[in-house]
Amino acid sequence: MRIIKNLDELFLKVFMSNPCPMAISELSDGTYIEVNDALLDTLSYCKEEVIGKTPLELGIFLDSIDHKKMLQLLNAHGYFKSFETLVSCKNGNILNAVFNGEFITIEGRPYLLTVMNNITAKRHYEQEFIRLENLNLIGQMSAGISHEIRNPITTVRGFLQFFMRKSAYAHHQDYFELMISELDKANSIITNFLYITESDPLHSQYIVQDLKKLLERIQPLLATNALEKHNRLLYYISDTPVILINETEIRQMVFNLVQNGFDAMPMGGTLILKTFRQDRHVVLVVQDHGTGIDEMILDKLGTPFLTTKDNGTGLGLAVCYGIAHRHNAKINVTTSSHGTSFEVHFPIYQTDS
Ligand SMILES: Nc1ncnc2c1ncn2[C@@H]1O[C@H](COP(=O)(O)OP(=O)(O)OP(=O)(O)O)[C@@H](O)[C@H]1O
Ligand SMILES: [Mg+2]
């Protein structure tokens, strides 16, 4: 570009070698005049694809109004600072980014200089931190109250069963059944709470295992579940290295993820369960072809009692995140209107020998 020859040598060095993505663009529509390597790397473009194009043409800002707002702020104040927005890369990745921008003059003409800060990892860790804080809180609460609640429930349930057999209450069988099933529901919420934390000693046994064998053992159960929902279940399970597993917990996690997949699909939908090795991890994928996760709750997934279902408790994913955390595993979610995929990355078990 001609303009590059007229840039001060020192500025040019700072601009080109800066680890922050930077761009010089036209004030009117943001047409890129010059960009640095960090910007090209971050957005996965090569220079020829970017120079002479506007962010709008490249679809860089997920919400195109944000780009307009930045230009408006620049015209009103002469600069903009810490403008946070979502940026779309050429490879489809979406990044959380913060922009600073101000006027610079080259050959007597004003241009816009923008500096971008990629804060995707920071946002991710913040969310993860909040999730773990929530789990911790639930852990402390549930350990304290679960016994106190379970004992009276057991007593009341016992008496209800005793009275429902009496001929005097024969006409009220339905009510007794309803009361017992409501108590069972309350009990299952407590059981789920205990799954979120590790306060139940049953859930603290971890042994080195083959994920394939575990998944094969629960296949008939999942297949019956699929049949009941008139959905199809496809198993693509590979031979993978052993991992440290608590079988009860992993079963629960798979059931919860599979159940959510079935819930999200209309009749006749296909749910895929697969495993493979990726670097030093074994990856378990539960992929549905449902309607996708509601955008409003996407960054809050795993928060206890978060549900969009009439009959959901909103504990299923909180349980999964708790289990993943105890297995040193990470859960990644991708979702669109064509379906959702939950990926659980387990670290491969390493022996010291
Ligand atoms: N595969 C999926 N497709 C679409 N939405 C999903 C999927 N998995 C989870 N969700 C959304 O996340 C919410 C929380 O899921 P979670 O499993 O924690 O609770 P739930 O399924 O609503 O209730 P339950 O406690 O019975 O599992 C769901 O209500 C749903 O909106
Ligand atoms: Mg669920």
The name of the CATH architecture of the largest domain is 2-Layer Sandwich
Work out the radius of gyration: 27 Å
What is the average of the pLDDT values? 89
Please count the beta strands (DSSP E, at least 2 residues each).
12
Uncertain spans? none
Secondary structure category: alpha+beta
In sequence order, what are the helices and strands, one letter per element?
A: HHEEHHHHEEEHHEHEEHEEHEE
Spatial gap, N to C terminus: 58 Å
Ligand names: adenosine-5'-triphosphate, magnesium ion
Q: Report the CATH C-level class of the largest domain.
A: Alpha Beta
How many DSSP H or I helices?
11
Helical content, roughly?
A: 40-55%
- The global form is elongated
Strand order of the largest sheet: 2-1-5-4-3
Strand fraction band?
15-25%
Kindly report the name of the CATH homologous superfamily of the largest domain: Histidine kinase-like ATPase, C-terminal domain
Number of domains: 3
Model description:
One of its GO terms (molecular function) is protein histidine kinase activity. InterPro entries: HATPase_C_sf, HATPase_dom, His_kinase_dom, HisK_dim/P_dom, HisK_dim/P_sf, PAS, PAS-like_dom_sf, Sig_transdc_His_kin-like_C. This is histidine kinase. Its EC number is 2.7.13.3. This protein has helices at residues 2-5, 9-17, 37-43, 47-50, 55-58, 64-77, 120-164, 173-196, 211-228, 247-264, 316-326, and strands spanning 22-25, 32-35, 79-88, 94-106, 109-118, 207-209, 232-237, 243-245, 270-278, 281-288, 330-336, 339-347. The chain is α+β, with helices and mostly antiparallel strands. It folds into three domains: 2-118, Beta-Lactamase, CATH 3.30.450; 120-204; 205-353, 2-Layer Sandwich (Heat Shock Protein 90), CATH 3.30.565.10. The strands form three sheets. A five-stranded antiparallel β-sheet has the order 2-1-5-4-3, sandwiched between helices. The longest helix has 45 residues, at 120-164. It is elongated and about 100 Å long. The model has no long low-confidence stretch (mean pLDDT 89).
